[in-house]
Amino acid sequence: MSYFRQFPKIGYDLKNDGVIQNVVNIYRSIRPLQQYIDNISAYKYYEIKNGERPDIVSQRLYGTPNYYWTFFIINDYLHDGLASWPMSSEDLYEWIKEEYNGFAITTNTIIRRNTDQLITDHENSLSGRFQIGEKINGGSSSANGTLKKKLIDMNQLIVQNCTGTFIGDPTLINNPSETIVGETSGDSVTSYQVYKYEDAPYQYYLETDITYQRVVDNGIFINGGTPASDLAFISNRAHVEQANMERSNLRVIDPNYIRQFTDKFETLING
Question: What SS3 state is found at 25?
Answer without folding.
Answer: coil
